[in-house]
Write a structure and sequence with these properties.
Blueprint lengths: L1 E5 L7 H8 L3 E4 L14 E6 L2 E6 L2 E2 L12 E2 L5 H12 L6 H13 L5 H15 L5 E4 H4 L5 H11 L4 E8 L2 E7 L5
Helix pairs in contact: 2-3, 3-4
């Protein structure tokens, strides 16, 4: 069994799925600390002939200190969902398959998720099915594993009976896939 892990990021980049293609199971780390500062958990950019366009999911963070990923709530005081969908429609207006995929995306946005985790996992599962990914997708919380750093990764591997762990590193525009057998844990 080959395992890999990743944070449940917003609209994952192709490397996320590339890494998952090399594993039997991808475990989304939902019981780790939410990254402080900038990150990809709640924002991403769409590229178009008009340049980069950022999509950000507004979050309730003020006064909450450090939170684990599963506890981060979405702030719904603005119509950010409508703005996201308008941006997708406008920036992808000439994309050949927009009409095929937009209804599913609109449905996900309409569900009104309260937490960032629920929203991101819903998007990831939709893309997972769309790409016909062969492996399993699991949440860390389903496995009831904890730890930090390498200990967490080893605990995840043990929980899913993995004998190999896959990591993907990215340096500038080049990516490198690393496969670790258990002797290196």
């Amino acid at each position: 069994m080959v395992a890999t892990t990743h944070q449940p990021i917003f609209l994952p980049w192709p490397g996320f799925f590339y890494k998952a293609l090399h594993a039997d199971v991808l475990v989304l780390l939902d019981r780790v600390q939410f990254p402080q500062g900038r990150g990809w958990m709640h924002r991403n950019r769409l590229k178009s002939d008009q340049g980069d366009h950022w999509l950000r999911v507004p979050l309730r963070k003020a006064g909450r200190g450090t939170q684990i990923v599963a506890d981060v709530e979405i702030r719904d005081e603005t119509n950010w969902r409508g703005r996201h969908l308008r941006s997708v429609r406008e920036l992808s207006a000439h994309a050949p398959y927009l009409r095929s995929y937009l209804p599913s995306l609109e449905e996900i946005y309409a569900r009104g998720h309260c937490t960032l985790l629920a929203f991101n996992v819903d998007l990831i599962r939709y893309l997972w099915r769309l790409l016909e990914m062969p492996g399993m997708l699991r949440l860390q919380s389903e496995l009831d594993v904890a730890g930090r750093g390498t200990d967490l990764l080893a605990n995840v591997c043990q929980a899913v009976n993995a004998d190999t762990y896959v990591a993907l590193t990215s340096e500038s525009s080049q990516s490198c896939l690393w496969i670790f057998p258990p002797a290196l844990w």
